[in-house]
Amino acid sequence: MVKVAILGYGTVGSGVAQVLHENQDSIAASVGQSVEVKYILDVRDFDQSPYGGRFVKDFSVIEEDPEVSIVVETIGGAAVALNFTQRALRAGKSVVTSNKELVACHGLELTRLAKEKGVCYLFEASVGGGIPIIRPLTVCLAANQIEEVCGILNGTTNYILTRMIQAGLPFETALKEAQENGYAERDPSADILGYDACRKICILADLAFGKNVDPQLVPTEGITGISLADVDYADGAGKKIKLLGRAVRQADGRVCAYVAPHLVDVTHPIAGVEDVFNAVFVKGNAVGDVMFYGRGAGKLPTASAVVADVMDIARSGGNRSPITWGDGDPALVCGTEELVSRFYVRIKGAADALRNQVGEIKLLARSGATPDEAAGITELAMTEAQLREKLMGMEVLSLIRVLN
Ligand code: HSE
Question: Which end of the chain is less packed: N or C, by CB atoms within 10 Å?
């Protein structure tokens, strides 16, 4: 029998306990032995829980119990979770996590520590919740040179944008609705400012390109600047506004990684990803384009990926081949400064002035537009700096990259 300890009995941790309990027979059949929760660590009391007798408050109980071979870390954050993960790995226990912040910021050292100790550190649930993406990227697509990874990596912001597009809700109202539905946190900053998507694209870039991509080097823009006017102009051009995390291999081997809103053509598969759903689009030099789609958050979808990692380790007896990547380098990551795209631009001023200054631009219309506002999409691809130079002296209200 494989004994597991769960750290943190929040949404994901309680989902892991539920899946391990409800699917215990099929899990045992697949692994070849049963997988049982021996401890759940949480500072709170859960007297009514069916796991009543298994709750502990002191991590050293788990750390010092040789029977526990797998620790599931669902605490979140990069402080306590880092300490417990290091201690568990040093104690010779494999660790499974859904913690994107920890993997993005400390994944390299933790995967190396796991390798050194001959145990596993797995994190399928850290990107895209229940969507299988870490294994497909590292195993099924291993024969490719990956050219690009691009995705809708945050469900909360995708929900907000979907409600702005479909129901015409202003950003603040759509955010409030997301909070009422339990998608957005009371402090929604990590989602709406793009930090959550940044952590996820860094993990995907680490794996796709084999070198550590530091989240602090990745330019990150959220959706707080998106207005209904932008949504309407985009609609008039047959496009939707989506928050994308992108990591694109450059010819010289550097990685252009960033998070920003984009105008996406309605014919692109990513444009059809609505509500809280996530999608990851991968371009490989042999396979071409592949897309992974599903629920990027939530109790049971995330637990689905966590428990699959637990089963993978249990099946291999802890001898699963390690997932890790190489050192990073500040010169590895280039921001968006060299990335050439067409751009959507909205200015305060007349359409003629916009055309005169930018040159080749497809002007856009929307109902309710005032004469002192103009918007368009550049006909030519250019860098953001080149466009900003053309717009010198104009009051720019919005500037959004168009996905190629
Ligand atoms: N808050 C995240 C989202 C879920 O909305 O996608 C966990 O990363």
Answer: N
* Three-class secondary structure of residue 113 per DSSP: helix
Question: Probe ligand 1: pick from 159, 162, 183, max atoms within 8 Å of CB?
Answer: 183
pLDDT at 319: 78
Count of C-beta atoms within a 10 Å radius of residue 46: 14
- Read off the pLDDT of residues 354-393 as tens digits, 9 standing for 90 and up: 999 999 999 999 998 988 999 999 999 999 999 999 999 9
Span 85-119, pLDDT tens digits: 999 999 999 999 999 999 999 999 999 999 999 99
Q: Record the pTM.
A: 0.96
Q: Which pLDDT does position 318 carry in this prediction?
A: 74
Q: Which of 156, 195, 306 to mutate to test the pocket of ligand 1 (most atoms within 8 A of CB)?
A: 156
One-letter identity of residue 357: Q
- What residue ranges do the domains of the chain occupy? 2-130+299-316, 144-295, 343-402
* Ligand 1 lined by 155 (C-beta under 6 Å): yes
CB atoms closer than 10 angstroms to residue 32: 10
CA distance 306 to 318: 15
Distance of CA 292 from the midpoint of ligand 1 (Å): 16
**What residues are labeled active site?**
200
Residue 321's pLDDT band, with cuts at 50, 70 and 90, is confident
Point out the ligand 1 atom lying closest to the alpha carbon of residue 191.
Answer: 1
Distance 29 CA to ligand 1 centre (A): 32
Length of the chain: 404
- CATH number of 2-130+299-316, picked from 3.40.630.30, 3.40.640.10, 3.20.20.70, 3.40.50.720: 3.40.50.720
Look at domain 144-295 and name its CATH class: alpha beta
Q: How far is CA 182 from CA 89, 248, 252, 396, in A?
A: 33, 33, 44, 35
356 token code pair: 């005169």
47 falls in which pLDDT band (50, 70, 90)?
A: confident
Cβ of 71 closer than 6 Å to ligand 1, yes or no, is: no
